[in-house]
Design a protein that fits this description.
It comes from Rhizophagus irregularis. By secondary structure, the chain is α+β, with helices and mostly antiparallel strands. It has four domains: 299 residues, Nucleotidyltransferase, domain 5; 109 residues, no CATH class; 115 residues, paz domain (Beta Complex); 138 residues, 3-Layer(aba) Sandwich (Rossmann fold). 29% of the residues lie in helices and 25% in strands.
Amino acid sequence: MSNERVRRRVNEKVKEKLKEIETQPEIRDPNEPPVPILTRKEYGDGYGKVGRHVEVKVNSFEVTNISKYNKFFKYNIEINPIDKDIEVDVKRERSDYGKSIRRRVLKELSLEMEDWFHKVVYAYDGGSTLYTTSYLGFDKVKDVKAVVKEEISIANLQNLDGEPTRYKVIINRLDTIIELTQINKYINGEEFEWEFFSDEAFNVLNSLIHKVGMENEKYIQSGNSSIYNKENKKNINGGVELCLGWFSTVRPGQGSLFINVNPTYTTFYQPLNLEEFLFQCFFPKYQNIPNEINAFQLKKINEILKGLLVKPLHLEPIQTGRRIRRLLAATKVNRFRYKPRADSEETFPLERYFRERYKLKASSRLFVELMTDDDTSIAWPVEFCKIIEGQRYSNKKLSGKQRGEIILLAKFKPSINEQETIRGAKEILQLQNDPTGVGMKVDPNLAKVDARVIKSTDVKYAGKIMKPNNGQWNLKDVKFVESGERLEFWHVVIFEQSKWMPKGEVINFIENLARQCESQGMSIARNRPEIQYLQYYNKGPNVVKQAYEDARDILRRPPQLIIFIIPGEKSPINTELYETIKRVMDTEIGCLSQCVSVDSRKNFRSPQYCANLAMKINLKLGGVNSILPEDKLRLPSGEEVLFLGADVTHPKDKNGKSICAVVGSLDNQAGRFITKYQDQERSGKEEILEIDKLIKEILREYCDYQKRRSRVKNNEVITLPPCIIMYRDGVSESQFERVLRWELPKIREACRLFRQGYEPKIIFSVVGKRHHTRIFPVDPKNRMEADKNGNCLVGTIVDKKITHPTLNDFYLQSHFANQGTARPSHYTILHDDIKLTIDEFQGLSNTLCYNFQRSTSSVSIPAPTYYAHLTCARAKMYLTTHRGNIYLPNVHRNLKNYPMYFM
């Protein structure tokens, strides 16, 4: 059977599983028991005792009175444009621009139909849901649930004919009544169901606290919880600007509600003339935009422009616009025929139409084709288009220079972060003034919480034990625990001109690197690699294959490692070249690679920089850099543990594929890990559909590794770890139950199928970084509670007050933040057969943060989870499109004996 047919069958199988899992809640057997809820009470009081007690501040404000109204009524609201020639975004439920328009329409409606809204407090989510404190006026008088307002006009928002835009509004009362009293039972731990994570009462409260900011035209709404200040923007070049704002949401705590507020940032398109945007984004080194754009450039441009909303400058003062479908290639401009109306029989060439209709000449001959609701053909010259303000530059790749600008501008020091949090709550949300109108009272001060600081973990090297200081140590006079295979056959390829990267300088760098590797205990032959210069432009993967073949010819055997020196992050080919190298070397050739950026040239003589590279190279060659004390990884019962990390990453393109990875430890000191990955159809869900398959592969690799290490006979049975601890990343609270219900039984099934009678005890936990909780020391000058940057000390744990009222969760700041405010990781234990105490689990989780093998500092999440994240990122580079189908190749068989190749 051909590879293509195999891939098709696999894809069909995965789609069947996806359909099964997506319909799972609806087809669930009524006799099937619900997923058990592991509560805090099953761990005593659920609070840790180990560590030095301190008090910290949290970026949350306690709600002292929720509302004087106990009931809210729910209405469905439809807002549709009457005119055809206005933005289609009003119909898009999740469009930020559409939400802003719908809010303006509702506000206009409330003023025009004052009797409907008299003595009614309402909250609107910007979509199709309206919450009210009592029935609307028409509902009271006519005793009907639905009403239609045939026309609402927005005077300062014109359609393409220059007239005020008109909308039809339909409001329909639903039978749902939301009881806020349910929240008190929830936060007091009296009741809990998985569905409470998406409870409608919280939707009501979130819509209320966002009302003031999102109705103010001074601010830009993004998503359901973020507001950005139009006046607080910074240009980061390339037609992109950074906008600072605030995230806010209502969170349940223990016995109280809290409003979590966090300064945040995002990127927006600058509201430029489209021609100027193209110039800044794609042709900054040119004097003018070229009329002839090649196919490669056109593809890149359309990736950025597709879906962008622009308004016509030739029809000023019109404020509405259209979304771009694509930039037309020069050859297509001549063939494109303008069809002014769907029923029109006459069509015009573009340039002639604009010359005759508007007396305008398109100087650049570049046109964009626009999206329409019908089959009307519309295209505008780029110089007559202006980007409408407030559109996120999301799902687009930023350049290295832009990312650097963001780090400089948005990495707030803890003291600044704290100030901005208070400012956002006071000025934007206006929490002190009951902006909700329902009698909500909020403490204006940051909440204070009891916390603990637990000790760091020793890190073992060959003959030496390092004692981290605030999560950090160094490699001076230290040798790795185990050297990888002896490095004899290696090669250096430079994708840069020799004038920018002189050969003599590279020779010195390689000498420094080799000496540093030897000083860390690695085995390296005295012969030094050959150095080769190549050009990448327009050659794609073939130039990487050429580099490998040249190295093989020079060495007269396959190289073990090729070091690639690639252009810096400011180069337009930096990311593409890096991804091409990894895809070709990992999946097509099967040779280890190490990329070095030209930007690092200033560090070529630095022992520390060379030591960091040595750590990566040793891991790739099969070595182990450091280990943790065995007693720290064994359970109190003395049982060994298989540590698992798992993650799922989703594509930016809705037609792409999700990638999932599972990583497992190979030894009892968690020094080596094996990683397995696969793709699956994008579904918006977080379940790893075939996690059982990946777990079986990990168990097989574990046994093979133990046999090689122990040098046992092939027929001898390897003892499998009696316990498994899973650290699962990438799961939102609303999907806890789905993921647990799907993945835990699959892990058990994989163990039983791998070996009859193998039924390990399992802890299934979720660890997350994508949250907005931050913790601050009460006294940033006190070195017993704060580090030199003003962050809380490494090892700070919060498991009281702001944590979940029922589930067993905690926040752990396990790393030192060189820049900005440290973000603690959020752990939730969803299942536990092992019955650890909360102190034991917290200590074990903290310990695993000290064993990320390519670092000399503790990291923010346990090493297995970090490796799973890296694997997803690497596998994403492997995705290949062939004949319209997307598939994910396997790592080449040559890398089977190098499990840490991805480091």
